[in-house]
Task: structure prediction
Amino acid sequence: MQQAGKQVDIHALAGQSRFNGFHGLVLWWCVLILVIDGYDLAVVGAALPSIMKDMGVDATSAGVMAGSALFGTMLGAIFLGTLADRIGRPRMIAVCVALFSVFTALTGLATEPIGFSVARFIAGLGIGGVLPIVTAQMGEFAPAKLRTRLVTMVFAGYSVGGILVALTAKQLIESHGWQWVFYVAGLPVLLIPLILKTMPESLSFLLKKGDQRQLGEIAAKLAPEQPNAAGTVYVGASSDRLHDAPVRTLFDAGRAFSTVMIWVAFMTGLFMVYALNSWLTKLMAMAGYSLGSALNFVIVFNVGAIVGAIGGGLLSDKFNIKHVLVAFYVVGAASLAALAYTKSTELLFVAVFVVGASTLGTQLLAYAYAGDFYPPAVRSTGVGFASGVGRIGAIAAPILIGWLVSLSLPIEQNFMAIALAGVIGAAAVSFVNQSRAASTQAKAARAATGEVGRVGGAIRPASK
Result:
C-alpha cells in the first residue's frame, strides 16, 4: 500500500497497470479517430479516376493534387505533434479533427485543381497532426506488456477507414458523384465536444503543470486496486523534465544517428503506403479491372494491413520489435515484387493482401516502434518529427508514380519502384541502436532495482 507523502512514478504505474475500462476508453477514442483519419486520407485514391475525368487532368497533375494533402500532413505531423506536448493532447486532437473533417468536406466543392489542392493541403495538416498524438497517447497509458499490441490496434483503425472508403465510394460516386465521398467526411466534427470531455490529458503534460489533483484521479483509474494515500506525490522519470528543448532531446543521449535512421525508415515506409493509397485503384484499372473490381483490391489491401498491424503488434510484444519491423520491410519489398508479376486474379488478391499486411502494416508498426524509442516527455515530438520528415517520401510517392504512369511503362516497373523503398527501409531500421530506446532503458532500470512488475498491487521483486 502506498505511504502518505510517498513519491510514485506515474509512468511506471501506467506501465505496470492491468488493462481496464480506462484503458479501453483511450483505445476506443484513438481507434475511432484513426478510422476517420484513414477515411479522409484514402478518399482521394478511390475518387482519383473520377476526378481526373471530371477535371480533365493528366496523371502527373493528379499526382500533384493527391500530394498536396501529403505536404500538409508533413507540416501537421511536425508542428501540431510537437505543439501537443506543450498545450495538451486532447486540445490538439480536437484541432486536428476539426481541420481534417471540415476541409475534407470542403474539397468536394472544388471545381478545379488549385482549389482542390488548397483544401486538401489544409485537411492534411490535421490528418498528419493527429497520427503522432494518438500514438503517444495510447503508448503513454498502455500497460507495458500490451503497449505495442495496443498501439498497433489503434493504427488498425486507419485501415478500417480505408475499407470504409472502398465500401462506400462505388455507390456514392456512381449515384451522386465523386464529391459526396468528401462531403460525408465533415460529420466527425460533431465528436469534438465528447473528445474534449472524456479524453484524459497526457501524464507528461500534467507533470509539467504540476497538476497533482488530475494525476491522482488518473492514477486511481489506471490502478484502482491501489488506494491513493493522502499526500502522495506523482512524479516522472528524469526524462520528463526535458520540456525546454524537446526537439533537441531527440538527438541527445546517443540518439542522433538512430533518430535519422528512424526518419529514413519512415520516409521509405510512407513512400510505399502513399504510392499504393494514391495509385492502387488506378493501376488495377490500367490492368483491365473495372472501378468496382479495383476497389475490391483496396478492401483486400486494407484488410491485410489490419492483420499485419495486429499480427506485428503480437509478435513485437513477444519478440524484439526492431527485428519484427525489419522482417516486415523485407516481406513488403518481396511481396510488391511478386505482385508485379502475378497474372492470376485469385493469386493477385492473395498478393495484394500480403502487400497490405507488409507495407501499410509495416508503417503502422513503425509508429509503434518510434513511440517505443523516445521518452514519454518527448514522445509526441519524436513520433511527430519522424512522421513529418517521413512525409517527404509520402509527398514524392504519388508524384513519382504519377510520372511513371504518364510514361506508359509496364505496370511491373511501377510496383518494382515501390518495392525498392522497402529494401532501403529494412536497412535503415537495422542501423537503429536499440540500446538507446526508452523501453530498453526502462527495462534495464527495473532490472537494476529488482522491480519487474506488480502483482495484486504489490511490487514483485525480480527472480534471483
